[in-house]
Amino acid sequence: MNEITTSDPVLNAILESESEKSDVLAQICARTRAETHQKASVKSLKEIAEEAKNKKNPTRGFARVLKEKMAKGHMGLIAECKKASPSAGIIRQDYDPAMIAVQYENAGASCLSVLTETGYFYGNNEDLKIAREACSLPVLRKDFILEPWQVYESRVIDADCILLIMAALKDQEANDLVELARCLELDILVEVHNEEELNRALALDVCLIGINNRNLSTLKTDINVTETLAPLVPPDRLVVSESGLKTFDDIRRVQSIGASAVLVGESLLSQQNAGAAVRNLLGIA
């Protein structure tokens, strides 16, 4: 994956230390913090905050769309755009986020998820802008949001929702990022992988609870994670099952135990026609 170096010896030491760990999440977070530090040296927190607050276009209501699907008894699909992942490597050599977004929308996806992480997923902010401009779906910025600077950046690049991963954040950090996102009219998908993370997430003022079937430290996937955690989520929250979902039977399986939406990427993108893959996944003839 892409390397990053900085002029800050402290950050370089962090990167070198984390790169030696087998914990994939720790490696990605170290790289993300270093990259954000570099960006902030070019555009200050004050400058990007002002830019975000001056955005005039409204967000598209990511959570609202999923709630409307749930109210009708339909499974919401957050269809993902990404070129690569740490577990699969390059997924699509001919990666075209605009074309994929249009195929997803036409096939019945509820929302988009676009990877903007550069080093491990080969994403960038332009991918999100291009995908969003190509369709009318609300868009999740799929990245490792760790700093307020990134939340402001998310609004600047026209994301409608951000992802917060409880495994990567302390409680106060998560709470501060949630409050900031709300001030910028961004929705928040909070991601958990175990009961301890779920309990921490439920203490936050958020309605979207993502249950990641993939262990971000080992990259192993098990749909039983959703089966274990979904029944523990109160009915006033909306459960999104993430990762490892490949078939219509998988969708029915997680829906039967309380998931109202799913986030799927790799199994859709690995097929030539992403739209046909969406229809097959949702059981649409």
UniProtKB/TrEMBL annotation:
Q: State the UniProt keywords alphabetically.
A: Amino-acid biosynthesis, Aromatic amino acid biosynthesis, Decarboxylase, Lyase, Tryptophan biosynthesis
Q: Name one Pfam family in it.
A: IGPS
InterPro entries, A to Z: Aldolase_TIM (IPR013785), Indole-3-glycerol_P_synth (IPR045186), Indole-3-glycerol_P_synth_dom (IPR013798), Indole-3-GlycerolPSynthase_CS (IPR001468), RibuloseP-bd_barrel (IPR011060)
Q: Which GO terms describe its molecular function?
A: indole-3-glycerol-phosphate synthase activity; phosphoribosylanthranilate isomerase activity
Q: Which reaction does it catalyse?
A: 1-(2-carboxyphenylamino)-1-deoxy-D-ribulose 5-phosphate + H(+) = (1S,2R)-1-C-(indol-3-yl)glycerol 3-phosphate + CO2 + H2O
Extract the coiled-coil ranges from the record.
none
Q: Report any one BP term from Gene Ontology.
A: L-tryptophan biosynthetic process
Q: What class of enzyme is it?
A: lyase
| Database matches in PROSITE patterns | IGPS
Q: In which pathway does it act?
A: Amino-acid biosynthesis; L-tryptophan biosynthesis; L-tryptophan from chorismate: step 4/5
CDD domains, alphabetized: IGPS
**Residue stretches making up the Indole-3-glycerol phosphate synthase domain:** 25-281
Enzyme Commission code: 4.1.1.48
What family is this protein classified in? Belongs to the TrpC family.
Indicate what this protein is called per its UniProt record.
Answer: Indole-3-glycerol phosphate synthase
**Which organism is the protein's source?**
Commensalibacter papalotli (ex Servin-Garciduenas et al. 2014)
Q: Quote the gene name from the UniProt entry.
A: trpC
